[in-house]
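Folded chain entry —
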Amino acid sequence: MYSVRCLTNSSVSFLALCLSLFLTSPNSSLAQKSFIKVDLSIKDSSTGVTLPARLEVRGSDGEYYTAEDAIPIGGDCTMSRSPKVLIDSAASVEFSNKASFLNPYSKTRQFYSNGLSSLRIPPGPATIKVYKGPEYLVSELTIEIPETGSISYEIKVNRWINMPEKGWYSADDHLHIARPSADLNPTVSKLMQAEDIHVANLLQMGKVEDFAIAEQYAHGSESYYQEADYILAAGQENPRTHFLGHTITLGAETTHFDADRYLIYRLIWEETIKEGAINGFAHAIFPYGSFLAPHDGLAVVLPHNLLHFIEILQFDRQGYDVWYDLLALGYRITPTAGTDYPCGGQMIPGHERFYTKVEGPLTYPKWIDSVRKGRTFVTTGPIVDFSVDKKEPGDEILLDKKSNITISASVQFDPGRDDVSFVELVQNGNVIDRFSRLKGSSEINFEVERYVKEASWFAVRGYGSRLDESTLVEPVIFGTFEPTSLVHSAPIFVSIKNQPGLEKSERAKEVAHTFLARLRDLERLLAEDNVDYLAARLELPDIDAVPKEIFLKNRKNLLKEIATAKIFFSKMSE
C-alpha cells in the first residue's frame, strides 16, 4: 500500500501546492451520510483488457469521490535537499491521504485507477468520466447508486486511433517523479499507463548546490522498467541556470554533474554523447528575455554540434520560433514536448507529449535512436501523418535539380475534445499554404505539389481549441487568445545537388547575426562588477540559483566559450 506524504516542514509555496492538490480530508458532514460500495472496472472495448485510467466521479451530492485503492501520485519539485514530496512505499503507512488532485484545466477533482477501483458513494445518480490519453475517447456515463447493498459496474473505453499499431509511441520528456527505489516501478508505470504514456522520462533535477531533486535509484540501462510497450527511464535536467537555460539529457548511462564547472554546458554534453545519450534544451516556450528562456545557452553551445532536441511544447504553449532559427542555421534538431510534471501546477502527465516512430518492438535504446533521427511530432491531442515524396519526418530528399515535390498530410483528432481550426504547411519557417476544417470533419487532409528551388525543410502544424479544458492562464476577457489544441510535425529536409545548403541561406545569416548579438550581450552581462546582480537576478533564486563563487570560478572559461561561439557565428553571418 502506498500513500502521498506532504511533510510539514516543506517550503511554504510547495506545501501550499501539496495541500491543495493531494489532500482530501474527510468532511464532517460526510460522516452523517450513508455510502454504498461501488466496484468499477475499466476495460478496452475491443480487447476486453483491463486498463489503468484517470477517473472523475461525482456523487448525487455534487461532491467528488476518490477510490480507496487509487494509484498514488507524487512528484518532486522541492528546491532544497529536504523535505521531498514523494510516493511513500512503506507498507505500514495507512492510506489516509487520498491520491486525488485538482485538475487545473477542468477545475474538477480526479484520481488514477489501475483499472479496478472501489469507492464509497452516496445513493442516487453518480456521474463518471474516464480519460486515457488522447487516443481514447472520453467515456462519460451516469449510474444509479442503490440505497442499500453494493454495486459493480464495468466501463468500456473506445479508441478513435491506435498509434502503436502504426509504430508511433507517445512520450513525455519532462517528468519529475522520484524513484528512490525500484519497488516504486510498478506504481509509477501504472500512473503512466493511465495517461497512455509509452515512454516516460523521469528527470533527476539539479542545480549547483543540489543534484538530488526527483532522485532516481539508477541511471542508464539499470533504470529501465518496461511493462509491455510502456517504459520508464531515468534522465536528467542538469545543468540548469536562469541565464543559460535548462538542459535535458536522455539515455546517458550515468549521471553527469560538475559543480565547479557548472556553467560550461559543453563539458557535460561531450561526456554524455560518449554514452550514446541525446541532449536538449527545455522550456523553448518561454520567449527571449523571459524566465528560463534557452536562447543564450543555445548560442553558446550550438557550434559544438552536441544538441539533438528542443522542447517546443509545454504548459499549453508553443515555442516554435527559436526552433525554426536552429533549423535555419542548418541544424537538424528534433522537436519534443513535455509537461514538467508536477512543477508549475501541471498535474496531468503527458498533457503535452510527442510521438516517435520506432521500427519493430519498442525498446528504450531504439526510441532514443529514433528521436535522434528526428522521427517525431508534438501534440496536445491531434495526430499528424506527413510525407514528402513518400519520405517521413527526419528523412532527407536529395533532388538532382530544382523540381517539384509532392507533399501529403493528414491531421486527425477527436472532435469531442479538439476543435482544430486549420493546418498550415511550413517551408523554412514560412507558411506557404493553409487548409481549414470543413463541415465539422474530424480530419484535415491535403496533397499538393511545390516547386523547390533551394535547400528547404518542410513541416506541418495545426491550431485549434481544446473543447473540454480551460487554460492554465486565467482568462483576461474571453480567454488567453492563444490556441490550446496544437500539433507540429518534425521536418523533412530537401536539398539539391550542387546547390548551397540551409546554412548558406540569407535567413541563416540573419539568425547568425542575432546569435552574435546575444553573445556580445552575454559578455557584458558577465562583467565582474555585474556578478552580484547576476547571481541574485531571480525573485525566486532557489529555483536554479548559481552562487557568486561559482560565477567567479566559471567566468573566465565561460567567456572563452562565448568567444569561440562568436567566431563561429561571425563566419556564418558573412
